[in-house]
Amino acid sequence: MAVAYTLLVLFLAVFVAGFILLVMGAINFDFSNSEIPPGVNQPVKLRIIHIILISRAVVGKILENIGICSQVSFVRYLQGRKTLGADPKLFIKDLCFEKVPVRIYQPKVPSASQWRGVMFFHGGGWVFGSLETHEKLCRSIARESESVVVSVGYRLAPEHKYPAAYEDCLNATIHFMKNIEHYGVDPARIIICGDSAGGNLAAAVSQTLAGRSDLPRLRAQILIYPGLQALDFNLPSYQQNQRVPLLFRECAAFFVLQYLNGDAPNLEEVLEGSHMPIDIKLNYRKWLSPDNIPEKFKVRGYKPHVLLDCTTEVYETVKRFCEPNLCPLLAEDAIVQQLPESFILTCEYDVLRDDGLLYKKRLEDNGVRVTWYHLEDGFHGIINSFNSDWLSFSSGKRGLDNIV
């Protein structure tokens, strides 16, 4: 107990010191590298959140440099400090499905029929995020939609590289579907849901289960600003929103490389588009072309990107980007046609906006019914801010209401 207290005091002291240094400019971070577009509602709040996140990262780097802990460990530690206690409207229980930690939220109100079941995969770039970071969101979904929600604590990168997170989410979902009677859930009303990296995992798991005849057919998939491809980081939304918090273009590429390889030595090649051979890019252009994005999403400034070739050495390190389990936007039509009804939420000021728009088109072209909700003043990560006290955003609540 004394050791934990000492560490906490040290963390707080370094955090305050790091924040002061950051504000004073003693630590080199240029806030001009970030941009809050005029269309964002409550821009001051977004700037404050961004400063908090940057301060956290700075303190983590200080602790890493003096040998106390890694930057990633420090950020995860802070994320895991949130505890909400009991909920008067929900039964909440921690279990393991096939050795994967899960947290189950079940409404206390009696139901005249079986519950709806929601498998939820959290965001965080496959590197961050946990059962705790999305606790409020999962509780709200369970309460407001009167559903049994199963939040999955999958393994994180860079310690656990692809396909660890995907396999954990898939195995936990299959376990739930095979033991559905224990949770009072209707097998005809099982939904897979996720935000950001969790949206990627939800799309991949949905595709894998689409052709399974030994399991119940999924009722729907809910993809909240999902990242669905890593072939093109120069789509209109990447160009327009590359410096908009809370997800920069460079960070999006860094995270997917961490998930794939546990490091990011080819970050520059990925960003400029010289990580894939031209023939592969042309093969997927029918699904990835900016021409498939409505013109109204290009008016804020977009320049067509010149196709660049790559070296064999670079391609060898990232060739698995062509696997649909990692980049679901690249799945064949035969798979996409079998997908369940879908809900896709996108945000205007989000680098991942066009991934959602391109997948929406793919689903619709293959006869899948899609409900699309677009937050005109939204930014990446806004849904998780629906209930963040004085840092809440009305758009986040509006988006969550539509998901429910």
Kindly list the characteristics that best describe this protein:
single chain, AB_hydrolase_3, carboxylic ester hydrolase activity, ADCL4 protein, 16% strand, 40% helix, GDXG_lipolytic_enzyme, 404 residues, 8-stranded mixed β-sheet, disordered N terminus, alpha/beta
Describe the structure.
The chain is an alpha/beta fold. 40% of the residues lie in helices and 16% in strands. The chain has 14 helices and eight strands. The protein has helices spanning 2-24, 43-65, 71-79, 135-145, 164-178, 197-209, 236-240, 249-261, 267-272, 278-288, 312-318, 333-336, 353-365, 394-403, and strands spanning 90-97, 100-107, 115-121, 147-152, 185-195, 220-224, 341-349, 370-379. Strands 1-2-4-3-5-6-7-8 form an eight-stranded mixed sheet, with helices on both faces. Strand 5 (185-195), helix 6 and strand 6 form a beta-alpha-beta unit. Helix 5 (164-178) packs across helix 6 (197-209). The longest helix is centred in the N-terminal third of the chain and has 23 residues, at 2-24. The protein is globular, with a radius of gyration of 21 Å. It starts with a helix and ends with a helix. Mean pLDDT is 92; it is low at 2-7 and 21-30. One of its GO terms (molecular function) is carboxylic ester hydrolase activity. Pfam families: Abhydrolase_3 (PF07859).
